[in-house]
Amino acid sequence: MQTRPFDLLVIGGGINGAGIARDAAGRGLSVVLVEKDDLAAHTSSASTKLIHGGLRYLEHYEFRLVAEALAEREVLLHVAPHIIEPLLFVLPHEPHLRPSWMIRAGLFLYDRLGGRMTLPKSFSVRLAGTRYGTGLKPRFRKGFVYADARVDDARLVVCNALDARARGSDIRVRTKLVAARRDNGLWHATLVDDAGARSDVTARALVNAAGPWVRDVLGELSEVPIAAGVRHVKGSHIVVPRIHDAPHAYILQNADNRIVFVIPYQDAFSLIGTTDVPVEHYAHPVISDEETYYLLTLANTYVERPLAASDIVWSYSGVRPLYDDGTSDPSAITRDYVLQLDAGRDAANAPVLSIFGGKITTYRKLAEAALAELRPFFPAMGPSWTHAAPLPGGDLPGGDRDAWLAELRQRYPALPADLLRALARRHGTRALAVLADTRSPADLGEDFGAELTEREIRYLQRDEWAVTADDVLWRRTKCGLAMTGAARARVAEFLGR
Fold first, then answer.
1. What's the CA gap between 420 and 431, in Å, rounded?
2. CA dihedral sign, ordered 282, 315, 97, 250
3. What are the pLDDT tens digits along the chain (497 aa)?
4. CATH class for domain 6-43+155-228+335-377?
5. Intrachain domains 84-150+231-321 and 397-496 with the same fold
6. Where are the domains of the chain?
7. Which CATH architecture group holds 84-150+231-321?
8. Which residues pair with 136 in a beta bridge?
9. Considering the domain 397-496, what is its CATH architecture?
10. Could you give the C-alpha distances from 410 to 29, 278, 413, 417, 422, in angstroms and in order?
11. Most distant CA pair in the chain: distance in Å?
12. Whole-angstrom distance, CA of residue 157 vs CA of residue 46
C-alpha cells in the first residue's frame, strides 16, 4: 500500500496509457495505471496490425503526421524487432481510380518524409506472371511496391506495461475509476476492482487515456470541463485462409477512395481490413453484415479465388476514438492526436491531461508529447529516453530474429522447432523467462495445441496479467485462431481451475 501520493494516475491500459506509464516511470515519476478490463482489451488489440506512415493520409495533406509516423516506424523496428517486422505492400494499379503520376508522387513523398530510412524505397513492378501478382486476377498487369511494417499490437501494449512495471509502476488491471476529485493540489480517486473491492489513491496529476471512454472518464472527474469532442469510428476486419503464398501484403483501392489491406497473418491466414463506420455505441463493437459484404466485395474485385462469408474464420472490430475535427467523411477525420490539459483554477492545482485520437504507430511520440505538457508540474522529471531503449524481449542479438531463434534451438535442442519459433515471435529474449529450466517436452506441462502449453500459460498468468481464456488466446497470443473449439474450451477450463 502506497501511503504517499503517486505522481501520475493513468486511466486506460491501451497503447497510449501503457506508453505514457512506461515513459513517465523511466523519467523518475511514480505511476499507477488502472484499466477497467484487460490490457489492450479494446481498440489497441483491434488494429490492422501495422506500423506505418499512412500512405493514404497524404491525400488529406497530413504531412506532419505521416512524417512523424514514418520516423517512428524506424524507431520501433529497432526497439521491438521481436514483434515488429518489415513487410512489403503491393498496390495493383487501377487507372480509373488514381493515375500513375499521382501514385508515383505519393510514393516519392512517402519514401522521403520520414528522413533516413533503412527499409527499401518504392518501385513499380509487372504483376502478371510474377510473384508480386500471386493470387490476383490476371487483368492486373502493373503495380507499385513500397515497404512498411507489421506488429503484434496487443503484445506491444503488454511490452510497454512490462517495462513500466519493471521501472516501478503499479499496473492494476480489471480496476475501474469510479470517482475522482481535486483537493489541496491532489487528485483523490476511488477505484473498484472486478471483485468489488474499493481502494483510494492520491496523485499529483491524472492522465485520461481511456480511448473510446475518454469523455466518460471526464464525466467522473469533478470540476473538469468537457471541451473536445470524440468521433467514434468502428473499424472491422475479417480473417480468411491464406489468399496467396507470397510474403507480401496487398493494398487495394476502392471507388469510394478508401483502401483495404490484405495481409499475410499467422502463417496460414490472410487479414482483410479495415472499414470506417461512425457509431454511437462503442462498448462491444462487432462486425456488421454490411461491413462483411464491403470487405468481401472489394477483395473479390482483385483476388483470383472468390471469397465467401463461409470462408471467414474470425472477425474483430474496434472503435477508434478520433478527435472531432468537424470532418463529415469518417475516412478523412484526422488520425493525429490532440492533448487537452486542464489545470483547474490555477497552475498549482492538480492537472488532468486527456488524450484524443492517435494511432498505434505514433504512441511513443504521443507519450513524449504528453509528458512535455506535464513537465511544468514536474520540473525535476528526466529527459526523453524511449527512442533508444529496447522494449522487453526486444534486445535480440544484432536485432536478428533468425539468429535469436537459432540460439534458442541450441539452448533447447529437445523442444519442437515450431514451439520455439512461436515463443521467439511472442516473447523475444523473454522466451527464456517462459522456458527457464525446461529440458524436455514433458517439462512444458499440458499441450493445448497451436504451440500453446501449460508452461506458457502459467508464465502469462504470473508475469503478464492474464486471467481469462480471451486474455491468453486472442491478446497475449493468437493461438485461438488455429485451435478447434474444443481446444479453446480446454484452455478456458484450465484457467478456471
1. 8
2. positive
3. 566 899 999 999 999 999 999 999 999 999 999 999 999 999 999 999 999 999 989 988 899 999 999 999 999 999 999 999 999 999 999 988 889 999 999 999 999 998 889 999 999 999 988 999 999 999 999 999 999 999 999 999 999 999 999 999 999 999 999 999 999 899 999 999 999 999 999 999 999 999 999 999 988 886 777 666 889 999 999 999 999 999 999 999 999 989 999 999 999 999 999 999 999 999 999 999 999 999 999 999 999 999 999 999 999 999 999 888 777 677 667 778 999 999 866 545 899 999 999 899 999 999 999 999 999 999 999 999 999 999 999 999 999 999 999 999 999 999 999 999 999 999 999 999 999 999 999 999 999 999 999 999 999 999 999 999 999 999 999 999 999 999 999 999 999 98
4. alpha beta
5. no
6. 6-43+155-228+335-377, 84-150+231-321, 397-496
7. 2-Layer Sandwich (3.30)
8. 303
9. Orthogonal Bundle (1.10)
10. 41, 51, 6, 11, 16
11. 72
12. 12
> C-alpha cell of 293?
459484404
Residue count of the chain, please give it: 497
3-state SS, one letter per residue, for the chain: CCCCCEEEEEECCCHHHHHHHHHHHHCCCCEEEEECCCCCCCHHHCCCCEECCCHHHHHHCCHHHHHHHHHHHHHHHHHCCCCEEEEEEEEECCCCCCCHHHHHHHHHHHHHCCCCCCCCCCEEEECCCCHHHCCECCCCCEEEEEEEEEECHHHHHHHHHHHHHHCCCEEEECEEEEEEEEECCEEEEEEEECCCCEEEEEEEEEEECCHHHHHHHHHHECCCCCCCCEEEEEEEEEEEECCCCCCCEEEEECCCCCEEEEEEECCCEEEEECCCEECCCCCCCCCCHHHHHHHHHHHHHHECCCCCHHHCCEEEEEEEEEECCCCCCHHHCCCCEEEEEECCCCCCCCCEEEEEECCHHHHHHHHHHHHHHHHHHCCCCCCCCCCCCCCCCCCCHHHCHHHHHHHHHHHCCCCCHHHHHHHHHHHHHHHHHHHCCCCCHHHHCCEEECCEEHHHHHHHHHHCCCCCHHHHHHHHCCHHHHCCHHHHHHHHHHHHC
CA nearest 255: which of 309, 308, 289, 297?
Answer: 297
Calpha distance 153→18 (Å, rounded): 12
Cell of 340: 487537452
